[in-house]
Specification:
- By secondary structure, this protein is an alpha/beta fold.
- It has a single domain, classed as NAD(P)-binding Rossmann-like Domain (Rossmann fold), CATH 3.40.50.
- The protein is built from ten helices and seven strands.
- It has a seven-stranded parallel sheet with strand order 3-2-1-4-5-6-7, sandwiched between helices.
- Helix 4 runs parallel beside helix 7.
- It is globular, with a radius of gyration of 17 Å.
- 44% of the residues are buried.
Length: 248
């Protein structure tokens, strides 16, 4: 059987790395996107990944730029093959209350966290539909569901990402392409490990499971949605938040 190929935007980050490892462990050829200025770090990341996963690659692109994304997709297709699985994982934060938020802080987050999904998916989805198979997974956030103080930009982008999921899912369903969202809650990452202990404890206290999630738990949900056998779930939002936000 021909190996599937997955592209993960923001693939060299914390959650992105866990997704790459989970998919690679399932026999998928993994291509991790990174921001061009981070080339040295990305090459180091690849060296580490290759110690355990042979079929792992990196590709540079500024996901906020449509042309850059087009060049990335062309490079992957020409050098590795057609992309079967897309994980839109690229994301940043620029937290400020709305009254103090600059246009640049708003636009940076919207461009990276939401517009990037259009920039990549729009140029990829037709090929998936023509081949009769595709798995698109968008990484949103619990704060896209419930909102968060100081994150009007981030919450808006992540909420918009699931709206994008539901619309594209309807457009592609008849062609064998599923589109779903995974919404992590508070996850143990390098960034959260630097928070003051008091802040970390207040976060944990708010979660019914009384702990933070792991990147591996998010990756497992992504890999489950990406599986070939998982063909009847589309337009869904899978929460990985320890019960922090529950909805019917």
């Amino acid at each position: 059987m021909t190996k599937q190929i997955a592209l993960i935007t923001g693939g060299t980050g914390g959650i992105g790395t866990a997704i790459c490892k989970e998919l690679a462990g399932n026999g998928v050829i993994v291509v991790a996107n990174y921001f061009p200025a981070d080339k040295v770090q990305a090459e180091s990341w690849l060296d580490e990944m290759r110690k355990e996963y042979e079929h792992c690659y990196i590709v540079a692109a500024d996901v906020t730029d449509y042309s850059s994304c087009g060049d990335m997709l062309e490079s992957v297709t020409d050098n590795i093959g057609s992309i079967d699985i897309l994980v839109n994982c690229a994301g940043i934060t620029r937290d400020k209350t709305l009254k103090s938020m600059s246009p640049d802080q708003w636009n940076c987050v919207i461009n990276t966290n939401l517009n990037s999904a259009y920039n990549v998916t729009q140029q990829l989805v037709q090929g998936m539909m023509e081949r009769g198979f595709g798995r698109i997974i968008n990484i949103s956030s619990v704060n896209g569901q419930k909102g968060q103080f100081g994150q009007a930009n981030y919450s808006a982008a992540k909420a918009g990402l699931h709206g994008f999921t539901m619309a594209v899912a309807q457009e592609t369903a008849s062609k064998g392409v599923t589109v779903n969202t995974v919404s992590p809650g508070y996850i143990e990452t390098t960034m959260t490990s630097e928070l003051p202990e008091q802040v970390l404890q207040s976060i944990v206290n708010a979660v019914p499971l009384k702990r933070m999630g792991t990147a591996q738990e998010v990756a497992y949900a992504v890999a489950w949605l990406a599986d070939q056998k998982n063909a009847y779930i589309t337009g869904a939002n899978i929460p990985v938040n320890g019960g922090l936000f529950m909805s019917s």
